[in-house]
Design brief:
transmembrane; single chain; 5 helices; mainly alpha; Rcf2; membrane; Hypoxia_induced_domain; 107 residues
Length: 107
């Protein structure tokens, strides 16, 4: 796999899995329409969803193996540096200067 494609997939994991699932559903429906045109649409969709789920599980298993394989080559220190804690600094404080609870955080 080329490094640019691999880096894109690494950054867009959920989009990639969703695209694989949608493609599998579409391909399965198209195949079943061609192979058995008399079959009911609801049955085609059920089979297409099952095929797509099986393919998605296979892709997730492959992704887990790739993560395990490529994860061993990177150091643990680099992983710690990649974490972004900037989100938490943008949250409002739980209490104001006088110690009163912020209304956003109260139940």
């Amino acid at each position: 796999m080329s490094s640019s494609l691999q880096s894109w997939v690494e950054e867009h994991k959920l989009s990639t899995i969703g695209a694989v699932w949608a493609t599998a559903v579409g391909a399965s429906v198209a195949y079943s329409r061609r192979r058995a045109p008399a079959r009911a649409t609801s049955l085609r969709l059920i089979h297409a969803r099952m095929h797509a789920q099986a393919l998605t599980l296979a892709v997730l298993g492959g992704a887990a193996l790739a993560h395990h394989y490529y994860g061993k080559s990177s150091s643990a220190g680099k992983r710690q540096e990649d974490l972004d804690y900037g989100f938490y600094s943008q949250l409002p404080p739980a209490t104001d200067a006088d110690g009163n609870e912020n209304e956003r955080w109260s139940w």
